[in-house]
Amino acid sequence: MKLIGTYFSPFSRRVAAALIALGIPYEHDDLNGYKDPERARQLNPVGKVPVLVLDSGEHLIDSAVILDYLDELVGTQRSLVPTAGEARRAMLQLAAISTTIYEQTTARDFEARRTQDCIQPNLIERYRLQTIGGLQALDAASSLQGLIRKAPLNLATISAVVAFEYAQMLHPDLDAAAIAPSLARVVLDLGNEPAFQQTRP
Ligand SMILES: N[C@@H](CCC(=O)N[C@@H](CS)C(=O)NCC(=O)O)C(=O)O
Fold first, then answer.
1. Residue 164 domain flag
2. What pLDDT score was predicted for residue 176?
3. DSSP assignment, residue 6?
């Protein structure tokens, strides 16, 4: 199978990290949807990465859909999300917080890049507070007993490590480690894991 999407995209990176964590071999195509929107639209009607191309030729779009497929592929014993119940809901909620951090971090970056007289400071502040709220919620789930922990790797942890590093990369002023010290420890503990090391942009 082939994963299309630059690792600068946190959505693509969390899929790549999941593929590596699950030991599923894949080819990688480094497409950046912002730099080559035409090609992205050819692969995905809404022009976004990641796209996963299966050996059958089928195209899967959207990281959540792709991750759901990977879980189906490896089966319930190895899946990154529990199959049902409260444990499944909790895992998906935390992953949703991480993907919202991806979105708001990107939105804040875009807003900050506007020419000075077009910037809307109230929007930048709103995105900043949403990102802080998300990091604090992930931090509360980061402990030995929490869902975000070093092992075994699950969807909440993969998505959270990617969220932390993405927020830190785009907005070092945020001081993600001070906002989310327990999550920062998990990120540090997992820093050299192939899933993260091999996908770091
Ligand atoms: N819901 C999608 C979001 C994917 C997404 O926003 N990808 C961004 C990169 S981080 C993209 O390709 N954007 C290109 C564009 O919007 O033109 C997913 O989970 O895969």
1. yes
2. 97
3. -
From atom 13 of ligand 1, which residue's Cα is the shortest distance away? 48
| CA nearest neighbour of 17 among 50, 46, 57 | 50
Q: Is the CB of 8 under 6 A from ligand 1?
A: no
Query: Does residue 96 line the site of ligand 1, with CB under 6 A?
Result: no
Which of 201, 180, 198, 200 has the alpha carbon at shortest distance from 23? 198
5 lines ligand 1 (CB under 6 A): no
Residue 188 belongs to domain with CATH number: 1.20.1050.10
Does 11 sit in the ligand 1 pocket, CB within 6 Å? yes
User: Which residue minimizes the CA distance to atom 2 of ligand 1?
Assistant: 62
* Statement to judge: residues 105 and 144 lie in one domain: yes
The predicted-structure confidence for 54-111, as pLDDT tens digits, reads as follows: 999 999 999 999 999 999 999 999 999 999 999 999 999 999 999 999 999 999 999 9
Q: Are residues 175 and 147 in the same domain?
A: yes
Both 146 and 49 in one domain: the answer is no
pLDDT in tens, 143-161: 989 999 999 999 999 999 9
Q: Is the preceding omega at residue 45 within 30 degrees of 0, hence cis? A: no
Structure tokens, 98 = 């991480």
201 part of a folded domain: no
Select the more confidently predicted residue: 144 or 140. 140
Domain that includes residue 26, residue range: 2-74
pLDDT band at 126 (very low <50, low <70, confident <90, very high): very high
